[in-house]
From TrEMBL:
Record's keyword terms, sorted: FAD, Flavoprotein, Oxidoreductase, Plasmid
Residues of the signal peptide: none
Pfam families in the cross-refs: FAD_binding_2
Gene3D superfamilies registered for this protein in UniProt: FAD/NAD(P)-binding domain, Succinate dehydrogenase/fumarate reductase flavoprotein, catalytic domain
SUPFAM superfamilies the UniProt entry points to: FAD/NAD(P)-binding domain, Succinate dehydrogenase/fumarate reductase flavoprotein, catalytic domain
InterPro entries: CobZ, FAD-dep_OxRdtase_2_FAD-bd, FAD-oxidoreductase_2, FAD/NAD-bd_sf, Succ_DH/fumarate_Rdtase_cat_sf
Name of the protein in question: Fumarate reductase flavoprotein subunit
Swiss-Prot/TrEMBL cofactor(s): FAD
Residue intervals of the FAD-dependent oxidoreductase 2 FAD-binding domain: 5-433
Length: 461
Protein backbone atom coordinates (compact mmCIF):
# COMPACT_ATOMS: atom_id res chain seq x y z
CA UNK A 1 0.00 0.00 0.00
CA UNK A 2 1.27 3.51 -0.85
CA UNK A 3 2.28 5.83 1.95
CA UNK A 4 0.71 8.78 0.08
CA UNK A 5 -1.68 9.33 -2.77
CA UNK A 6 0.47 12.00 -4.43
CA UNK A 7 4.14 12.78 -3.85
CA UNK A 8 5.26 16.18 -5.16
CA UNK A 9 8.97 16.96 -5.55
CA UNK A 10 9.64 20.71 -5.40
CA UNK A 11 8.45 23.71 -3.44
CA UNK A 12 7.67 26.52 -5.89
CA UNK A 13 4.68 27.75 -7.82
CA UNK A 14 4.27 24.60 -9.95
CA UNK A 15 4.65 22.23 -7.00
CA UNK A 16 2.20 24.12 -4.80
CA UNK A 17 -0.41 24.43 -7.55
CA UNK A 18 -0.14 20.66 -8.10
CA UNK A 19 -0.37 19.91 -4.38
CA UNK A 20 -3.37 22.20 -3.91
CA UNK A 21 -5.17 20.80 -6.96
CA UNK A 22 -4.69 17.22 -5.76
CA UNK A 23 -5.63 18.04 -2.18
CA UNK A 24 -8.84 19.71 -3.34
CA UNK A 25 -9.76 16.34 -4.83
CA UNK A 26 -9.43 14.77 -1.38
CA UNK A 27 -6.03 13.17 -1.93
CA UNK A 28 -3.31 12.71 0.67
CA UNK A 29 -0.41 14.84 -0.58
CA UNK A 30 3.22 15.10 0.53
CA UNK A 31 5.52 17.84 -0.75
CA UNK A 32 9.29 17.34 -0.39
CA UNK A 33 11.41 20.47 -0.86
CA UNK A 34 15.21 20.09 -1.05
CA UNK A 35 15.85 23.61 0.23
CA UNK A 36 15.55 24.86 3.82
CA UNK A 37 12.33 26.70 4.62
CA UNK A 38 13.90 30.13 4.16
CA UNK A 39 14.90 29.27 0.58
CA UNK A 40 11.74 27.38 -0.30
CA UNK A 41 10.17 27.97 -3.64
CA UNK A 42 13.09 28.18 -6.05
CA UNK A 43 12.68 30.94 -8.62
CA UNK A 44 9.14 31.71 -7.48
CA UNK A 45 10.71 33.62 -4.58
CA UNK A 46 12.08 36.18 -7.04
CA UNK A 47 9.23 36.59 -9.48
CA UNK A 48 6.93 39.59 -9.82
CA UNK A 49 4.22 38.64 -12.30
CA UNK A 50 2.63 36.09 -14.58
CA UNK A 51 1.31 36.35 -18.15
CA UNK A 52 -2.24 35.13 -18.74
CA UNK A 53 -4.68 35.65 -21.58
CA UNK A 54 -7.73 37.76 -20.65
CA UNK A 55 -10.64 39.30 -22.54
CA UNK A 56 -10.84 42.74 -20.97
CA UNK A 57 -9.23 45.24 -18.66
CA UNK A 58 -9.46 44.61 -14.93
CA UNK A 59 -8.66 46.54 -11.79
CA UNK A 60 -5.01 45.52 -12.26
CA UNK A 61 -4.70 45.07 -16.04
CA UNK A 62 -5.00 47.98 -18.46
CA UNK A 63 -6.56 46.12 -21.39
CA UNK A 64 -7.35 42.79 -23.07
CA UNK A 65 -4.73 40.22 -24.07
CA UNK A 66 -6.24 37.62 -26.38
CA UNK A 67 -5.21 34.01 -26.75
CA UNK A 68 -4.17 34.70 -30.33
CA UNK A 69 -1.95 37.63 -29.32
CA UNK A 70 -0.37 35.56 -26.55
CA UNK A 71 0.32 32.76 -29.03
CA UNK A 72 1.79 35.20 -31.55
CA UNK A 73 4.10 36.59 -28.87
CA UNK A 74 5.18 33.07 -27.91
CA UNK A 75 5.87 32.13 -31.53
CA UNK A 76 7.90 35.31 -31.99
CA UNK A 77 10.16 34.89 -28.96
CA UNK A 78 10.70 31.15 -29.56
CA UNK A 79 11.07 31.57 -33.33
CA UNK A 80 8.47 28.80 -33.63
CA UNK A 81 10.49 26.37 -31.50
CA UNK A 82 7.56 25.18 -29.39
CA UNK A 83 4.96 22.42 -29.26
CA UNK A 84 2.18 24.47 -30.82
CA UNK A 85 -0.73 22.29 -29.71
CA UNK A 86 0.54 22.09 -26.14
CA UNK A 87 1.22 25.83 -26.08
CA UNK A 88 -2.25 26.70 -27.36
CA UNK A 89 -3.74 24.49 -24.67
CA UNK A 90 -1.65 26.20 -21.99
CA UNK A 91 -2.66 29.65 -23.22
CA UNK A 92 -6.35 28.70 -23.23
CA UNK A 93 -6.07 27.39 -19.68
CA UNK A 94 -4.21 30.52 -18.57
CA UNK A 95 -7.46 32.51 -18.81
CA UNK A 96 -9.22 30.79 -15.89
CA UNK A 97 -5.89 30.60 -14.03
CA UNK A 98 -6.16 34.27 -13.03
CA UNK A 99 -9.32 33.47 -11.10
CA UNK A 100 -8.22 30.06 -9.80
CA UNK A 101 -4.94 31.29 -8.36
CA UNK A 102 -6.71 34.14 -6.57
CA UNK A 103 -9.01 31.55 -5.02
CA UNK A 104 -5.86 30.04 -3.50
CA UNK A 105 -5.15 33.30 -1.67
CA UNK A 106 -2.88 35.05 -4.19
CA UNK A 107 -3.54 38.75 -4.72
CA UNK A 108 -2.63 41.05 -7.62
CA UNK A 109 -1.78 44.75 -7.87
CA UNK A 110 -1.40 47.22 -10.77
CA UNK A 111 1.80 47.10 -12.77
CA UNK A 112 4.82 48.54 -10.96
CA UNK A 113 6.34 51.79 -12.17
CA UNK A 114 9.38 51.25 -14.37
CA UNK A 115 8.29 47.77 -15.54
CA UNK A 116 8.26 48.67 -19.21
CA UNK A 117 5.24 47.57 -21.32
CA UNK A 118 3.73 45.02 -18.93
CA UNK A 119 0.62 46.73 -17.57
CA UNK A 120 -1.72 45.19 -20.14
CA UNK A 121 -0.32 41.68 -20.49
CA UNK A 122 1.01 40.67 -17.06
CA UNK A 123 -0.58 40.43 -13.62
CA UNK A 124 1.69 41.56 -10.78
CA UNK A 125 1.63 39.81 -7.42
CA UNK A 126 0.80 42.00 -4.46
CA UNK A 127 3.95 41.80 -2.34
CA UNK A 128 5.94 39.99 -5.04
CA UNK A 129 6.92 36.36 -5.42
CA UNK A 130 7.42 35.55 -1.77
CA UNK A 131 3.99 36.88 -0.89
CA UNK A 132 2.46 34.81 -3.67
CA UNK A 133 4.39 31.76 -2.49
CA UNK A 134 3.39 32.26 1.14
CA UNK A 135 -0.28 32.42 0.11
CA UNK A 136 0.00 29.10 -1.73
CA UNK A 137 1.73 27.45 1.24
CA UNK A 138 -0.97 28.65 3.62
CA UNK A 139 -3.67 27.26 1.38
CA UNK A 140 -1.88 23.94 0.86
CA UNK A 141 -1.27 23.42 4.56
CA UNK A 142 -4.89 24.39 5.29
CA UNK A 143 -5.96 21.58 2.96
CA UNK A 144 -3.85 19.07 4.85
CA UNK A 145 -0.83 18.95 2.53
CA UNK A 146 2.29 17.91 4.46
CA UNK A 147 5.44 19.91 3.67
CA UNK A 148 8.91 18.56 4.43
CA UNK A 149 11.89 20.88 3.98
CA UNK A 150 15.51 19.79 3.43
CA UNK A 151 14.19 16.58 1.92
CA UNK A 152 16.02 15.83 -1.32
CA UNK A 153 14.93 13.12 -3.74
CA UNK A 154 18.04 11.05 -4.44
CA UNK A 155 16.49 7.94 -6.00
CA UNK A 156 13.45 6.95 -8.04
CA UNK A 157 11.97 3.47 -8.38
CA UNK A 158 10.40 3.54 -11.84
CA UNK A 159 9.59 0.24 -13.57
CA UNK A 160 7.60 -0.42 -16.73
CA UNK A 161 6.52 3.23 -17.08
CA UNK A 162 5.25 3.30 -13.50
CA UNK A 163 6.47 5.17 -10.41
CA UNK A 164 6.65 3.05 -7.27
CA UNK A 165 8.71 4.97 -4.74
CA UNK A 166 11.29 7.68 -4.14
CA UNK A 167 14.31 7.59 -1.87
CA UNK A 168 14.55 10.86 0.03
CA UNK A 169 17.49 12.12 2.07
CA UNK A 170 17.07 14.46 5.04
CA UNK A 171 18.96 15.32 8.21
CA UNK A 172 17.47 12.19 9.74
CA UNK A 173 18.88 9.94 7.05
CA UNK A 174 17.35 8.24 4.04
CA UNK A 175 13.74 7.16 3.67
CA UNK A 176 11.79 5.32 0.96
CA UNK A 177 8.45 6.99 0.26
CA UNK A 178 5.80 5.14 -1.74
CA UNK A 179 3.03 7.01 -3.55
CA UNK A 180 0.28 6.22 -6.03
CA UNK A 181 1.35 9.13 -8.24
CA UNK A 182 4.45 11.31 -8.55
CA UNK A 183 4.65 14.96 -9.66
CA UNK A 184 8.09 16.34 -10.54
CA UNK A 185 8.04 20.12 -10.09
CA UNK A 186 11.55 20.73 -8.83
CA UNK A 187 12.99 23.19 -11.33
CA UNK A 188 15.86 23.13 -13.78
CA UNK A 189 19.57 22.36 -13.38
CA UNK A 190 20.96 25.91 -13.56
CA UNK A 191 22.86 25.58 -10.27
CA UNK A 192 24.89 22.66 -11.67
CA UNK A 193 27.71 24.55 -13.40
CA UNK A 194 29.24 21.35 -14.76
CA UNK A 195 25.97 20.48 -16.48
CA UNK A 196 25.74 24.02 -17.88
CA UNK A 197 29.22 23.54 -19.31
CA UNK A 198 27.91 20.67 -21.43
CA UNK A 199 25.99 23.26 -23.42
CA UNK A 200 28.10 26.39 -22.93
CA UNK A 201 31.65 25.20 -22.35
CA UNK A 202 33.94 27.18 -20.07
CA UNK A 203 31.83 30.32 -20.55
CA UNK A 204 29.51 28.94 -17.87
CA UNK A 205 32.15 29.68 -15.22
CA UNK A 206 31.26 33.37 -15.59
CA UNK A 207 27.48 32.88 -15.36
CA UNK A 208 25.53 34.14 -12.37
CA UNK A 209 22.60 32.06 -11.09
CA UNK A 210 19.60 34.24 -10.29
CA UNK A 211 18.00 31.66 -7.97
CA UNK A 212 19.11 29.37 -5.18
CA UNK A 213 21.93 26.81 -5.34
CA UNK A 214 19.43 23.97 -4.82
CA UNK A 215 18.23 23.63 -8.44
CA UNK A 216 20.73 21.06 -9.67
CA UNK A 217 18.50 18.89 -11.82
CA UNK A 218 19.03 15.65 -9.90
CA UNK A 219 15.44 14.52 -10.45
CA UNK A 220 15.65 15.43 -14.15
CA UNK A 221 18.69 13.18 -14.56
CA UNK A 222 17.03 10.31 -12.72
CA UNK A 223 13.85 10.57 -14.78
CA UNK A 224 15.77 10.54 -18.08
CA UNK A 225 17.94 7.66 -16.87
CA UNK A 226 14.73 5.81 -15.95
CA UNK A 227 13.37 6.02 -19.49
CA UNK A 228 11.47 9.30 -19.61
CA UNK A 229 11.81 11.18 -22.92
CA UNK A 230 14.23 14.11 -22.85
CA UNK A 231 13.40 17.40 -24.59
CA UNK A 232 15.66 20.38 -25.20
CA UNK A 233 19.42 20.75 -24.90
CA UNK A 234 21.83 22.02 -22.29
CA UNK A 235 22.45 25.38 -23.99
CA UNK A 236 18.84 26.61 -24.00
CA UNK A 237 17.74 28.58 -20.97
CA UNK A 238 16.11 31.75 -19.68
CA UNK A 239 19.14 34.02 -19.49
CA UNK A 240 19.05 37.77 -18.92
CA UNK A 241 21.65 40.47 -18.45
CA UNK A 242 21.98 41.15 -14.72
CA UNK A 243 24.20 43.39 -12.68
CA UNK A 244 27.72 41.96 -12.82
CA UNK A 245 28.16 42.82 -9.12
CA UNK A 246 25.42 40.37 -8.08
CA UNK A 247 26.34 37.30 -5.98
CA UNK A 248 26.95 33.97 -7.72
CA UNK A 249 23.60 32.62 -6.44
CA UNK A 250 20.24 34.01 -5.40
CA UNK A 251 20.60 37.62 -6.55
CA UNK A 252 17.01 37.45 -7.74
CA UNK A 253 14.88 40.05 -9.47
CA UNK A 254 16.59 43.05 -7.87
CA UNK A 255 19.76 42.44 -9.89
CA UNK A 256 17.96 42.48 -13.26
CA UNK A 257 18.35 45.55 -15.46
CA UNK A 258 15.59 46.82 -17.75
CA UNK A 259 17.38 49.84 -19.23
CA UNK A 260 18.88 48.34 -22.39
CA UNK A 261 16.28 49.99 -24.66
CA UNK A 262 17.11 53.38 -23.12
CA UNK A 263 20.77 53.45 -24.16
CA UNK A 264 23.43 51.33 -25.84
CA UNK A 265 25.32 48.21 -24.79
CA UNK A 266 29.06 47.82 -25.35
CA UNK A 267 31.42 44.93 -24.68
CA UNK A 268 34.84 45.06 -23.04
CA UNK A 269 36.27 46.30 -26.35
CA UNK A 270 33.93 49.33 -26.00
CA UNK A 271 31.98 48.30 -29.10
CA UNK A 272 28.25 47.75 -29.63
CA UNK A 273 27.27 44.22 -30.70
CA UNK A 274 23.45 44.10 -31.11
CA UNK A 275 20.37 46.21 -31.83
CA UNK A 276 19.18 47.48 -28.43
CA UNK A 277 15.84 48.57 -29.92
CA UNK A 278 14.80 45.40 -31.71
CA UNK A 279 11.44 44.96 -30.00
CA UNK A 280 9.32 45.76 -26.96
CA UNK A 281 11.43 45.04 -23.89
CA UNK A 282 9.37 42.21 -22.30
CA UNK A 283 9.64 40.26 -25.56
CA UNK A 284 13.39 40.72 -25.94
CA UNK A 285 14.97 41.21 -22.52
CA UNK A 286 15.74 37.50 -22.22
CA UNK A 287 17.98 37.46 -25.31
CA UNK A 288 20.55 39.64 -23.60
CA UNK A 289 21.91 36.97 -21.29
CA UNK A 290 22.82 34.83 -24.29
CA UNK A 291 24.22 37.83 -26.18
CA UNK A 292 26.47 38.85 -23.29
CA UNK A 293 27.52 35.23 -22.79
CA UNK A 294 29.04 35.30 -26.26
CA UNK A 295 31.08 38.46 -25.62
CA UNK A 296 34.68 38.51 -24.33
CA UNK A 297 34.84 37.63 -20.63
CA UNK A 298 31.01 37.28 -20.72
CA UNK A 299 30.70 40.90 -19.68
CA UNK A 300 29.16 44.08 -21.11
CA UNK A 301 28.05 47.58 -20.07
CA UNK A 302 24.71 49.36 -20.48
CA UNK A 303 25.39 53.05 -21.19
CA UNK A 304 22.84 55.87 -20.85
CA UNK A 305 22.57 59.49 -19.70
CA UNK A 306 20.80 61.59 -17.10
CA UNK A 307 17.25 61.91 -18.59
CA UNK A 308 16.77 58.11 -18.50
CA UNK A 309 17.43 57.51 -14.81
CA UNK A 310 13.73 57.70 -13.79
CA UNK A 311 12.45 55.55 -16.67
CA UNK A 312 13.24 52.05 -15.34
CA UNK A 313 13.56 50.00 -12.19
CA UNK A 314 17.15 50.29 -10.99
CA UNK A 315 19.33 47.42 -9.83
CA UNK A 316 20.11 46.81 -6.19
CA UNK A 317 23.49 48.36 -6.98
CA UNK A 318 23.88 52.02 -7.99
CA UNK A 319 24.98 52.80 -11.54
CA UNK A 320 28.54 53.86 -12.16
CA UNK A 321 28.53 57.55 -13.12
CA UNK A 322 30.89 60.24 -14.40
CA UNK A 323 30.62 63.82 -15.71
CA UNK A 324 32.22 62.90 -19.06
CA UNK A 325 32.37 59.91 -21.40
CA UNK A 326 36.13 59.59 -21.04
CA UNK A 327 35.94 59.52 -17.25
CA UNK A 328 33.16 56.92 -17.43
CA UNK A 329 35.31 54.78 -19.73
CA UNK A 330 38.18 54.94 -17.24
CA UNK A 331 35.92 53.81 -14.40
CA UNK A 332 34.75 50.89 -16.55
CA UNK A 333 38.35 50.05 -17.52
CA UNK A 334 37.52 50.58 -21.20
CA UNK A 335 39.69 52.26 -23.81
CA UNK A 336 38.55 55.94 -23.56
CA UNK A 337 39.29 56.69 -27.23
CA UNK A 338 37.32 53.72 -28.55
CA UNK A 339 34.49 54.27 -26.09
CA UNK A 340 34.14 57.96 -26.91
CA UNK A 341 34.22 57.19 -30.64
CA UNK A 342 31.52 54.51 -30.27
CA UNK A 343 29.17 56.88 -28.43
CA UNK A 344 29.86 59.84 -30.72
CA UNK A 345 29.27 57.74 -33.85
CA UNK A 346 26.02 56.51 -32.36
CA UNK A 347 24.90 60.04 -31.50
CA UNK A 348 25.67 61.26 -35.01
CA UNK A 349 23.60 58.44 -36.52
CA UNK A 350 20.43 59.08 -34.47
CA UNK A 351 17.39 60.00 -36.59
CA UNK A 352 14.76 61.06 -34.07
CA UNK A 353 11.82 63.43 -34.11
CA UNK A 354 9.05 61.01 -33.24
CA UNK A 355 7.51 60.86 -29.74
CA UNK A 356 9.63 58.71 -27.45
CA UNK A 357 7.42 55.83 -26.25
CA UNK A 358 8.74 52.71 -24.50
CA UNK A 359 5.31 51.02 -24.70
CA UNK A 360 5.47 50.63 -28.49
CA UNK A 361 8.04 50.56 -31.25
CA UNK A 362 8.53 54.27 -31.77
CA UNK A 363 10.60 54.27 -34.96
CA UNK A 364 13.33 56.49 -33.55
CA UNK A 365 16.31 54.87 -35.21
CA UNK A 366 19.88 55.32 -36.36
CA UNK A 367 21.18 55.28 -39.92
CA UNK A 368 24.54 54.32 -41.32
CA UNK A 369 25.90 52.19 -38.48
CA UNK A 370 27.06 48.59 -38.87
CA UNK A 371 24.47 47.77 -36.18
CA UNK A 372 21.60 50.23 -36.17
CA UNK A 373 19.33 50.76 -33.20
CA UNK A 374 15.88 50.40 -34.76
CA UNK A 375 13.71 51.90 -32.02
CA UNK A 376 14.12 54.23 -29.04
CA UNK A 377 17.36 55.69 -30.39
CA UNK A 378 18.25 58.88 -28.51
CA UNK A 379 21.53 60.70 -28.20
CA UNK A 380 23.62 60.02 -25.13
CA UNK A 381 24.64 63.60 -24.54
CA UNK A 382 23.39 64.88 -21.18
CA UNK A 383 25.75 64.43 -18.22
CA UNK A 384 26.17 62.82 -15.87
CA UNK A 385 26.68 59.62 -17.85
CA UNK A 386 25.81 56.26 -16.37
CA UNK A 387 26.73 52.60 -16.81
CA UNK A 388 25.72 49.25 -15.40
CA UNK A 389 28.16 46.34 -15.78
CA UNK A 390 26.28 43.14 -16.71
CA UNK A 391 26.88 39.40 -16.92
CA UNK A 392 24.62 36.53 -18.00
CA UNK A 393 22.11 35.70 -15.28
CA UNK A 394 20.62 32.22 -15.68
CA UNK A 395 17.08 31.85 -14.37
CA UNK A 396 16.26 28.33 -15.47
CA UNK A 397 17.21 25.72 -18.07
CA UNK A 398 15.00 24.26 -20.81
CA UNK A 399 16.39 20.75 -21.04
CA UNK A 400 13.81 18.58 -19.29
CA UNK A 401 11.16 15.91 -19.73
CA UNK A 402 8.46 15.51 -22.35
CA UNK A 403 4.82 15.78 -21.24
CA UNK A 404 1.42 15.46 -22.90
CA UNK A 405 -1.71 17.61 -22.50
CA UNK A 406 -2.43 15.96 -19.14
CA UNK A 407 1.04 16.92 -17.83
CA UNK A 408 1.82 13.20 -17.91
CA UNK A 409 5.42 12.34 -18.66
CA UNK A 410 6.09 10.59 -21.96
CA UNK A 411 8.55 7.72 -22.07
CA UNK A 412 11.46 7.57 -24.49
CA UNK A 413 9.57 5.10 -26.69
CA UNK A 414 6.69 7.58 -27.06
CA UNK A 415 4.30 5.79 -24.74
CA UNK A 416 2.68 7.74 -21.89
CA UNK A 417 3.85 6.94 -18.39
CA UNK A 418 1.37 5.45 -15.97
CA UNK A 419 1.56 7.75 -12.96
CA UNK A 420 4.40 10.21 -13.61
CA UNK A 421 3.53 13.90 -14.01
CA UNK A 422 5.62 17.06 -14.39
CA UNK A 423 5.07 20.81 -14.10
CA UNK A 424 7.11 24.00 -14.18
CA UNK A 425 10.71 24.46 -15.21
CA UNK A 426 11.43 20.74 -15.44
CA UNK A 427 9.09 20.56 -18.45
CA UNK A 428 9.20 24.19 -19.63
CA UNK A 429 11.16 23.16 -22.73
CA UNK A 430 7.95 21.71 -24.17
CA UNK A 431 6.73 25.30 -24.53
CA UNK A 432 10.03 27.18 -24.63
CA UNK A 433 12.37 25.61 -27.14
CA UNK A 434 14.26 28.91 -26.99
CA UNK A 435 13.60 32.52 -26.04
CA UNK A 436 11.34 33.93 -23.34
CA UNK A 437 8.58 36.44 -22.71
CA UNK A 438 8.18 38.12 -19.33
CA UNK A 439 6.00 36.17 -16.88
CA UNK A 440 5.58 33.04 -18.97
CA UNK A 441 7.58 30.83 -16.60
CA UNK A 442 4.98 31.40 -13.92
CA UNK A 443 2.23 30.64 -16.43
CA UNK A 444 3.83 27.31 -17.33
CA UNK A 445 4.22 26.44 -13.64
CA UNK A 446 0.70 27.39 -12.58
CA UNK A 447 -1.17 25.91 -15.55
CA UNK A 448 0.70 22.62 -15.73
CA UNK A 449 0.90 22.43 -11.93
CA UNK A 450 -2.86 22.54 -11.67
CA UNK A 451 -3.25 20.01 -14.48
CA UNK A 452 -0.65 17.68 -12.95
CA UNK A 453 -2.33 17.78 -9.55
CA UNK A 454 -5.80 17.16 -10.93
CA UNK A 455 -4.63 14.36 -13.21
CA UNK A 456 -2.56 12.74 -10.44
CA UNK A 457 -5.66 12.84 -8.21
CA UNK A 458 -7.75 11.31 -11.01
CA UNK A 459 -5.18 8.53 -11.43
CA UNK A 460 -5.40 7.70 -7.75
CA UNK A 461 -9.18 7.51 -8.03
Amino acid sequence: MADWDVLVAGGGNAALCAAIAAARQGRRVLVVEAAPKFYRGGNTRHTRNMRCAHDEATSTLTGPYSEDEFFEDLMRVTDGNTDEALSRMMIAKSKPMLGWIQQQGVRFQPSLGGTISLGRTNSFFLGGGRSMLNALYRTAEGLGVEIRYEHEVIGLDIRERRFHAATVRSRDGEEVIRAAAFVAACGGFQADIDWLKQGWGEKAENFLIRGTPYNRGTVTRMLIDSGVMQIGDASQCHAVAIDARAPRYDGGIITRLDCVVLGVVVNTAAERFYDEGEDIWPKRYAIWGRLVANQPDQKAFIIFDAPNIPRFMPSLYPPISAPSLRELASKLELDPDVFERTINEFNSAVIDGKPFDTNAKDGNTTEGLAINKTNWAQRIETPPYYAYPVRPGITFTYLGVKVDHDARMVMADGAPSDNLFAAGEIMAGNVLGQGYAAGIGMTIGAVFGRIAGEEAARHVA
